[in-house]
Amino acid sequence: MSYTVINPADESIVTEVEHLDEAATDAAIARAVVAQREWARVAPADRARALRRFADAVDADIEHLALLETRNSGHPITQSRWEAGHVRDVLEYYSASPERLIGKQIPVAGGLDVTFHEPLGVVGVITPWNFPMTIASWGFAPALAAGNAVVLKPAEWTPLTSLRLGELALEAGLPEGLFQVLAGRGSVVGERFVTNPAVRKLVFTGSTEVGKRIMAGAADQVKRVTLELGGKSANIVFADSDIEKAAATAPYSVFDNAGQDCCARSRLLVQRSVYDRFMEGFEQAVKNVKVGDPTLEETEVGPLVTLAHRESVASFIDDSAPVAFRGSAPDGPGAWFAPTVVTPERGSRLATEEIFGPVVSVLPFDDEADAIALANDTEYGLSGSIWTNDLGRGIRVARAVEGGNLSVNSHSSVRYSTPFGGFKQSGLGRELGPDAAEHFTETKNVFFASE
Ligand code: NAD
Description:
Elements: E1 2-6, E2 13-18, H1 22-41, H2 44-60, H3 62-73, H4 77-94, E3 105-106, E4 111-119, E5 122-126, H5 132-145, E6 149-153, H6 160-171, E7 179-181, H7 186-195, E8 199-205, H8 208-219, E9 224-228, E10 234-237, H9 243-255, E11 267-271, H10 275-287, H11 307-314, E12 323-326, E13 340-342, H12 349-352, E14 359-365, H13 368-375, E15 383-387, H14 391-400, E16 405-408, E17 427-428, E18 441-449
Parallel strand pairs: 5-6, 5-8, 6-7, 8-9, 10-11, 10-15, 11-14, 13-14, 15-16
Antiparallel strand pairs: 1-2, 3-4, 4-18, 9-17, 12-13
Helix pairs in contact: 2-4, 3-4, 4-5, 9-10
Bound molecules: nicotinamide-adenine-dinucleotide.
Nicotinamide-adenine-dinucleotide binds at residues 126-130, 135, 153, 155-156, 186-187, 190-191, 194, 205-207, 210, 213-214, 228-231, 262, 354, 356, 382, 422, 426-427.
């Protein structure tokens, strides 16, 4: 079995990728078990050095990785470069962890009590197609740092940069079998990560539907899981904010990566008293978004990831959709979709379902209480933005919105040094930040009797 990778910007064939079957997956997991035992015995400073060499290899390959991502996923080249640099940064950040997995000494009677952070063994990382290499690194870097082996299954549509990272790890001197990238189907390779008892933890990023299935499957072996799932995040614009700035930045909070971002602020909540003024500035800003050839330096938004995904996004915008205005997109071959602004009713499909494309639903609200209720009226809780110049309101609303990653007067979500993850059905557990390596360990308590 193999998969043909198509460039979504022009529909040309990029390459063929072989898919592993269940037996090959089991063989790779068995190699990982052997490699992990050795790796856990390597001195912390030497594990740190090995990860820094891996980061250096990524750094030297940034242009190559970026071009690969642009051809495979259609990401604008400047964004692809940022993503490759982010993988290097994540590796560098967690290269400090092996020497800082510090346990506790707990006062008890009759002896010495200490805790250790023991590695889990083999960790299975399953990634989606929207940010293939960055999301992979959030799993593999801290997992390796904590003394685990990693098997990584990239999404069927976007395997190329993950496969390249597997090669770079070997070139940088990581032991054979320690970090393996296994291309294949979710229902084959991904399912096997769930059922093979040698895989001790699953890090899954993808749809809420598949995430629930993985969580249910993992229960059979009480397998540890971290889940990063869907979102329908709110960008809340209060009348007391800098309306011009809020309008000028809003397109990039939802149309970046063609809206294929779990943190996309795909619900834009605008206070009724400034609605018209905001929409005027917003329309201009949407029309100015540069959608086009992702290999060009000036391009801000590329195509959707595949023609099949474009079908899925387009199914939300039929003739009855309340379209307010649209930006532009190229004609001709490629999975193009123009940025689209809709004004649906509260509770409608457009206002509640994750579309995962360049579509934003604008909803007016009356006051602070209404804004909070509307923002929280969703099964998801991943990210969100709050625009206000009232400090007290910024604090109140940030505390009241049920979401894992909020920003006030900005749209930032992801920094490798701060924790990332979702409330409610947007996920379980946290990635990144100073504690991530510990999430790939078991705490062991040992009491040494002194009498
Ligand atoms: P998906 O759930 O279809 O697939 C994700 C991965 O799971 C793929 O590698 C797929 O092959 C694999 N998979 C599918 N079925 C499986 C099974 N039965 N067992 C094991 N693995 C299986 O998601 P997608 O369409 O690739 O990605 C889009 C979704 O990901 C969106 O919902 C988006 O919000 C979410 N996402 C979340 C975050 C986050 O951090 N919260 C980040 C990025 C994307």
